[in-house]
Amino acid sequence: MPAYPKGFPMSLLLYRLGRTAYRRPWAFVAVWFLVLGAVVGLALANGGGKISSSVTIDGTQSQDVTDRLRAELPDAAGGQGTLVFTVPQGDRLDSGERAEGIADAATSIAGLGTVADRSARPDTDPAATPRAPDDASEPSGIRPLVVDGTPVPGVLVSQDGSVAMLQIQFTEQVQDLPDGTVEEVTALAEDATAGTGVDVLTTESLKPIHAPVGGHEAIGLGVAALVLLITLGSLRAAGLPLLTALTGVGIGLGGAFALSQSITMTTATPVLALMVGLAVGIDYALFIVNRQRRFILTQGLPAEEAAARSVGTAGSAVLFAGVTVVIALTGLSLIGITFLTTMALVAAATVVLAVLVALTLLPALLGLAGERIASAKARARGATLTVEEHRHLAHRWSGAVVRHRWLAIVGVVAVLGLAAVPVSDISLGMPNGSTANLDTDERQAYDAITRGFGEGYNAPLVVVATPEAGSRLAQQDVARISTTLEDTPDVKAVSLMGADPDGGTAIFTVIPEEGPDAVSTSDLVDTLRANGPTLTAPEGVTLGVTGLTAVNIDISEKLADVMPLYIAIVVALSLVVLLLVFRSVVIPLKATLGFLLSIGATFGVVTAVFQWGWLKDLFGFDTTGPILSFLPIMVTGILYGLAMDYEMFLVSSMREAHVHGHRGRDAIVHGFDQASRVVVAAAIIMVSVFAGFIFSEDPMIKQFGLALAVGILVDAFLVRMTLVPAVMSVLGETAWWLPRRLAAVLPNRDVEGDQLKRHLRRQPEQEKRPLRALPAHRPRHEAPLVAAGPAATPNGNGHHREGALSMAFQIPPSRKGLP
């Protein structure tokens, strides 16, 4: 048994794992694909999973009111939806067969078991004629639909008779209704009005719920495959990262759908997991395969030894990079927002799987590929490369950045600062009909309601009046509350929705003057909550506000409040991880400050595109609106983790050069040369994967796709590839400073694999397998990792003397002439 170094460093553990997987490939492949099959089978047995479009936050006032209603008046606590009936302007639908068809639709829908019974409380019909608060002497023009002299419950008609809307009260929240309920409601309305010239439109609240996953993902995967082929130069090598990434994502999403009956997943949850899982899965595998091929082509190692060492060295960086991403994502669970926690944990699970697959399944697949992972032509070319051929664009770029470091620093900071300017105007909100594309049902329904009734009817508030314990609401109390609500500024109309027969609770529908995204609507919610006692005549009566509009307002406010806390938690935890990896105080701080520049520019671009409308035609949408309220916090977590990935791979290569004898700016240029090509390829792959989601029809996914694509583009190419080498050249040796006392306490995780190399030098069994001779004109910066075998030994007998080992491991001198 070989003697392991004290502490058994991570690089050696991963080296052993990689070698075991390479030598027993079928065992590892079988285990992973059995897991994949089992998880997918469970997901299918679970009906394919349950997706919800509802977003709630426990502990908010709107959620508290909803929970209380479920306990006290369950029929009134269900979700609400609206169907809109329209005819061309100039026509009317409030008479004849059109009115009869709408009445039949309302009757058929009311007969469904999932719809609350209105007939039991006709005096509290929410479709009762609202009063016009601005001038009570003038009718608002909005009235119930009347057929054969009888008002149709729940149906309102606009003044010009061209628009009608059916307000539906469900017994459960819309996301909790049985599958197919929403489609059945729409079908009943369309069948009842067929042939009458009436169009039936569904509002956002009745939009069918589907995971917005379509063919757009293939665009990003296609670009990724092309980049992999160019980078690795082999179809066989390029296919492995795609295969492993899809395996990890398949297990992650399959597991999420298998558990979706127990956990609430929003429509964005599986898509975010797919985005992140594909991106990191491909990138992590790329780093390992690229390192293996480099060992084969430049050091003449056999494929098995090269695979084991690539897992031991690049695999260490992959492991810590994955840990950083997981920390950034799971940090969201500390905030206490259920739907964000679910999104974050599902995405984090796909990252964990990406790391495990890269460290176990990938070397097993490399074992199946064997020596065919690099063709004879590629090996011959690798053996004849000259020094100048190794000094490609990366060397010229890093040299230029180091020479003109202050220009690079000022230029990058100025560009990113300018890109961040629109952030000062950012407005956060939740999706609604006004933000949908013009050709969608939900947008046309929104516009029809605005035209026929006013924009406020798209943002109804549910106001619940509750007396203090031991009191009750008399009929005159309910009337006074209704009158007072009508007289409140920014209220367009009020109607009694329901009341507890025992006088315990009264529920009102309050229509604001403006739409769901208006500042006046948010202010109205705050006014009703803060001034409830003064707005109600009876003493001791409190007002609670809920409904979809209030819920969305609460979500936006809560997320804005917790954003600073989340950033502080994630940054603190990640700084610890980076401190362990780089054993430097300055580098983690520099990495985090660079990320702040990236995130500011990212949100600036997103605001300019989706809120200001810049380039909206290019990105396939025609309506501007607020930025998704939970996008900043989710994108910050994801981008921070991914940005630290690139920091990890790029700077760890610089640290490796520093540990192996390069000093100052020479270590920066040398490390950049070694890592930049694969980092560029990885960044292009990530940008391509994320950009493919920009063309999704779902506006939420479109915003996430653009934000993540822009964020990676900015962070990888401007911050990591330009700003980082410039700043590190200014810092010089200070970049690697670590106080002695801290250095003595911190464990050495050996990300560079230095302890692995020392261990391998002591193992004669590593030298028993003959390797091809190293090229005589090997570039100076490609010093062999270990002596390759008899051809590399002074005596040719396959046994190294200590002096020969010292020569084999001699570190090339630092380059001269660098600025």
Principal-axis shape equals elongated
The poorly predicted ranges are 1-7, 119-139, 386-390, 766-819
Strand count, sense and barrel status of the largest sheet are: 5 strands, antiparallel
Count of individual helical segments: 26
Radius of gyration, taken over Cα atoms and rounded to an integer in Å: 32 Å
Structural class: alpha+beta
- Sheet with the most strands: spatial strand order: 3-4-5-2-6
In terms of DSSP E residues, the strand content is 5-15%
Question: What is the share of helical residues?
Answer: 55-70%
Average predicted local confidence, pLDDT = 79
> How many runs of DSSP E, i.e. beta strands?
13
End-to-end separation in angstroms reads 48 Å
Tag the structure with descriptive keywords:
819 residues; 56% helix; disordered N terminus; four-stranded antiparallel beta sheet; elongated; alpha+beta; five-stranded antiparallel beta sheet
